[in-house]
Design brief:
By secondary structure, the protein is an alpha/beta fold. The protein is built from seven helices and ten strands. The structure holds hypoxanthine.
């Protein structure tokens, strides 16, 4: 039991897939897992533990934004002895070589925010995903023939489309980091994992782009997630 999680200790697997949306956690359990059970409902942040091809895994929602994923990932690592968290989410693109529906493997996450300073008193704005997990994801992608693009993402506190001037933000990003787009959770996940000596990775589907006008419906977003979900699930078999 944790402040924000009612699961008993043995009810969470060592590897957790983490979508942002609780309904997506439910969708993954219902469509990809066997013998699954609901182990957390606190705040509607569903966690399901079940089997993917005989491998026990948990799928738990993170909610939106760094504070939310910071809380849930901390409790999973620290109180449930979770070793690996793979975030599976969506992102906005800033660069014209990314297309809507592309799958991204995040190498490093950059934030303007102060999650790291708040947590540990240390200034840190750029952090790497776990090389261990990223290597496994890449190996699995090659095995199953899933295309992906590796690169760095910005982790924001305000959803890009709601910024007064999204391009002002993009222009402010340090050019040397070659940031491809934005999402809102990876930095807090990677930092929490690093501080607790655990593994974290982040796979994203491009759901919108500052360089394109096309927008997806929520149904299209759901469908486009399936290839990314399969890549994450197949990777868990290697862990
Ligand atoms: N910004 C931040 N997070 C996101 C975006 C975005 O444009 N699209 C999907 N998640």
């Amino acid at each position: 039991m944790a402040i924000h999680n009612e699961a008993k200790k043995g009810e969470i697997a060592k590897t957790v897939l983490m979508p942002g949306d609780p309904m997506r956690a439910k969708y993954i359990a219902e469509n990809f897992l066997e013998d699954y059970r609901l182990v957390n409902t606190v705040r509607g942040m569903y966690a399901f533990t079940g089997k993917y091809k005989d491998k026990e895994i948990t799928v738990m929602a993170s909610g939106m934004g760094m504070p939310s994923i910071g809380i849930y990932s901390y409790e999973l690592y620290k109180l449930y002895d979770v070793d690996n968290i793979i975030r599976i989410g969506s992102c906005g693109a800033h660069v014209d070589y990314l297309n809507v529906l592309d799958i991204i493997l995040v190498e490093n996450s950059y934030t303007e925010g102060n999650f790291a300073k708040n947590m540990t008193g240390t200034e840190c704005h750029f952090i790497e995903a776990s090389p261990y997990l990223n290597n496994k994801i890449e190996k699995t992608a090659h095995q199953i023939g899933q295309l992906y693009i590796k690169g760095n993402m910005a982790c924001t506190e305000c959803f890009d489309p709601y910024l007064e001037d999204p391009w002002l933000f993009v222009k402010r990003l340090p050019a040397e980091y070659q940031i491809m787009g934005s999402e809102m959770e990876s930095f807090a996940l990677f930092y929490t994992a690093k501080k607790l000596g655990k593994n974290a990775a982040c796979l994203l589907t491009v759901s919108d782009s500052l360089c394109r006008t096309e927008e997806l419906t929520s149904e299209q977003r759901q469908n486009s997630m399936n290839n990314m979900i399969k890549l994450a699930l197949e990777t868990t078999l290697e862990l």
